[in-house]
Sequence to fold (609 residues):
Amino acid sequence: MPTLAADQEAPLPESAVTAREGWLRLLTGGLQGLLLYVLYFSATSDWWSPANQILFAPLLLVSLFAPILLIVSLGHLRRRPASIWLAIAAVIIASLGVYDIWRGDTAASTLSSRGNVSFPSTLLVFFLAIGFFIAHSLLLSGVQDKRHIARYATHFENAWKLIIQLGFSYAFVGVLWGALFLGALLFSLIKLDFLRDLLEKSWFAIPVTTLGFSCALHITDVRPAIVQGIRSLLLVLLSWILPVATLIVLGFLVSLPVAGLQPLWETKSATAILLGAAAMLVVLINAAFQNGEVSSAISRIVRISARLAALALLPVVALAIYALYLRVHEHGWTTDRIIAASFLLVATCYALGYAISVFHPVWMRSVARTNMATAYLILVELLALFSPLFDPARISVNSQLARLRGGRIAAAEFDYEYLRFQGARYGREALEQLLQAQGTDAETIRRKAQAALMKKNRWDKQEGASVSSDQLSRNITVWPKNERLPFAYTSQQWAASDQAWQLPTCLRSPQSKCDAFMLDITGDGKNDILLLPAEKHVSGAIFVEGADHSWWLFGTLPLALTGCDSFREKLIAGDYRLEPVRTRQLRVGNQSIEVHKQYRSSNVTCPSE
Fold:
C-alpha cells in the first residue's frame, strides 16, 4: 500500500481540523445521500437499463465507501495525497464490484436482485470495509511519519481513533433515528402522521442518514482528547479480561488429552470455534500491549497472562488447521473452507509472531512487527479472494468436480446444488458441462445437473419435485364442500413456477396439507382460490385464473392470519362477506391497469373468537 510520503508538503497536525473541514464533510455527506437516493430510485423502478446492469454495483460501492474515505481524509491529508488515494480506492472498489457481478448468478445467493439491477455480495461489502479501514490507517500513518512504513505507535493511534470514530458515528445515527421514530409516535398520539410518513420517504431517510454519519465523524474528530480517553478506558477493561480468557483456553488445552479430539471433530464446527478463540486471544493481547510503550504500567498478572496467551495461541491455531484439513480431505474445498483457510493463514502469522515475542528480552516487543506484517497480509488476501486471482467459487468448483470425476464421491450423492447456488458463474458453467457427461453414471449426472439448473432458489429443498394432480387434490380440502378445485389448477406444475418460493408447501410437497376457499375475491364474477397452509409458519396465498385458463399467484396473506385458528374457522363456517373495493385504473394506450393499495401487515391482527 503506497504511503504517498514522497509528497513534499508537511503532514497536517491534528489541530488543522477546522470548521471549514466540518462544512466540507457535511457537504460530502449530503452529496453521498443524494447519489445513494438516485441509485435507490433507479433500482426500484424501470429507469435502469438491464443492458447496464453490471455498472450498478460498482457505482453503489463507490458511493458507499469513497465519501467516507474523503471525510476521514479531510484535515489529515493534503490535497494531492488525498486525491491520489481516493482515485486508487475508487478504481479498486469499482473493479472488484464489476468482477463481483460478472462472476455471480442472479439466481444464486451471492447476489440480491431487484428490478433491473444486481446488488453486490454481502461478503464483498463487509470485507471492503475491513480492507479500507486497514489501508487508510496505514496510509495516514505513513504520511504523518513521512515514511513508507510508519512507527507502530502511529499506526496504533490512528487505527484506534478511526475505530472509535466509526463506532460512535454508527451509534449516533442509531440514536438519531430512535429520536425521529419517537417523535413520529408522539405526533401519532394526536393523529398527526406527517412525521411518520416523512420517515418512510427514501428521499428523506437516505440523506438524513448520511448527513448524520458525516456530522458524527466530524464531531469525534475535533474532540481527540475524548476519543483518546474512551480508547484508554476500553483497552484497560479489555486487558483485565485477558487473565480470564487465558485461564479458559489453557484449561481447554489441558483437558484435551483426557477428553480426546473426537468430541471436538463431532461438532463439525471446530474450525470456526477455534478461530473464534484465537481471535479473542489476539484482541485481548493487543488490548494489554497497546502501542508497545506502556509495559511498565501494566499489572504483573496481565503481563504474565499475555505471555501465556501468546503461547496458547499456537496450539489453538494448529488444532483449527487440523480440523479444516480433515473436512477438506473428506469433503473437498468449498467457499466457506477457502475463506476459513485465509483466516487461518492470518491466525498462523499472529500465532508464530506472538510466540516469538514471548522470548524477547523486552516484554512482547515482537507483537508490533507481527501486527504490521499481518495487516499487509490481510490486504493481499482480500485482493486475491475477491478478484479472479484466488476466487473461492472457482477453486471450490474445481475441487468438487475433481472429487466427482475421480470417483471419490458417488454421482448420486454429489451436491449439485452447491455448484448451482454457491459456485457462482463457475458452478453454473460446470453444471452445463455435466449435461454432456459420458461414461459410468452419465445418466444420473445429467439428470441431477439438469434438476439443479432448473431450481430457482436454494432454500426450498422440495423445488423441482412434482406433485401429481390426484395427490394435490388429496392434499387440499376445499370449502364449501360442494366445490371442487379446477382441473387446470391441480394439473399445473407449481414446483417449476418462477413463483415457487412464495407458494404454500402443499403445492410442492406430497406431505403438506392446505385448506382452499373458493371466493370471488377480485370481483370479476369467477371464483378465485384462497389457500391456507396447515403449517402456521407459511403465508396463505390467493390465486386467480388468467385469460388462458392458467392460474397465477395474485398475492399473499399476512403470516399472522395463517397461524390464526379463529380466522380459519370463520372462513370454514362461512362467517365472512366480500366487500367491494374502489380502485383507480391507469390506462396506458388501450390497456387498463388496476392500482391496488398494499395492506400494512402491522395493522392485520387475528380476529377474536
